[in-house]
Specification:
D-Maltodextrin-Binding Protein, domain 2; six-stranded mixed sheet; globular; 12 helices; 10 strands; 335 residues; alpha/beta
């Protein structure tokens, strides 16, 4: 509690100091928005839309510079740059925050959410909003969740039952939860950059992966993965983040307008991500290069039951209350 009061006092002093400086200097606020993907992705388009709306509604007050494709900072150093206020906006995948908070691992828990609608409901409710503030002690504050999509399992053999994955080697992002997920299936994992995934699958260095439909299609993974099981077993999302010292120092009226713009952009990004995934799923089916396997409700429930021990394994670091809040948002009655 004392630390919370100290943080609030610090932000109040920072706000007062910055407001005074802005009044004297009367210069626009500069925001550098750095990301690691192409401009034609939902995240890339979201960054450009944010810049466009800020220029339209806050002309002369705020200036936004967008740096796509790791042109300013890459995966390895972007969060440290944010914490040092060398960049003011990022949108990393949720797995990248593991060293700053374990609570966000809830989004990696396999078969916890039924679908993207359940993810949306969780993110909008109290526990989901709480997680946006879980890294303020590390100079990171979350502003919004941006979707990439629900993940599907691809492999060089059919995956219908949990036992089917035994013995395979899967490419994963760095994540203790994802390691445990595949270990529970009797599979091994290889942490590889996304850019190296196609070649690793093509060569047989790894035999499977997990990705949203849009990632599978854009990287042509379906050309080297003969089977894709429509598992929707996890979510690959981003968090739009800023440096709290910077963010809370923005004058209240301007910050309120920026937050309104972020809400508008978030809606557009998430809508586009869902449309892209549905479109690319159909493209993959029509290509005939990979067989898409739809699981029955009973088969998916078998996967969920096989994965429950992973939830229990991470309950202590994520929080039982957070996992239960995520379960509640599912529309379907659990057996």
């Amino acid at each position: 509690m004392l630390n919370s009061f100290r943080r609030l006092a610090f932000y109040a002093l920072a706000l007062a100091a910055c407001n005074s400086e802005l009044t004297l200097a009367d210069e626009p606020i500069h925001i550098k928005f750095s990301h690691v993907v192409a401009e034609n992705t939902p995240k890339g388009q979201g960054a450009l839309l944010f810049k466009s709306l800020v220029e339209e509604r806050l002309a002369g007050k705020v200036q936004v510079e967008v740096y796509p494709n790791s042109s300013l900072y890459g995966d390895a150093d972007e969060l440290e740059a944010l914490r040092n206020n060398q960049v003011q906006l990022l949108a990393p995948s949720l797995a990248k925050f593991e060293q700053y908070t374990k609570q966000l691992q809830v989004f990696d828990l396999p078969f916890l959410f039924d679908d993207i609608g359940a993810v949306n409901r969780f993110q909008k409710r109290a526990k989901g909003r709480q997680l946006l503030r879980s890294m303020e002690d590390h100079n990171i504050v979350g502003l919004a969740y941006w979707h990439n999509g629900m993940k599907q399992l691809s492999a060089n053999r059919t995956l219908i039952l949990p036992s089917d994955a035994s013995g395979l080697n899967f490419r994963i992002q760095p994540s203790a939860v994802l390691e445990a997920q595949f270990a529970k299936l009797g599979a091994t994992t290889q942490k590889l950059p996304f850019s190296e995934t196609f070649r690793a699958l093509q060569s047989g260095h790894v035999q499977g992966a997990e990705n949203p439909w849009s990632n599978i299609h854009s990287q042509k993974l379906h050309e080297v993965q003969p089977y894709i099981s429509e598992t929707n077993h996890g979510v690959l999302d981003y968090m739009l983040v800023s440096n709290p010292r910077f963010w809370y120092s923005i004058p209240h009226q301007i910050r309120t307008q920026l937050e309104s713009i972020i809400d508008e952009v978030t809606f557009a990004v998430n809508k586009q991500a869902e449309a892209d995934n549905q479109r690319d799923r159909q493209r993959i089916i029509e290509s005939g290069q990979s067989k898409v396997i739809s699981l029955t409700p009973e088969q998916r429930q078998a996967w969920r039951e096989a994965m429950r021990p992973v939830w229990q394994q991470f309950e202590g670091v994520i929080g039982e209350d957070i996992i239960k809040a995520a379960e509640i948002v599912n529309r379907k009655k659990r057996s």
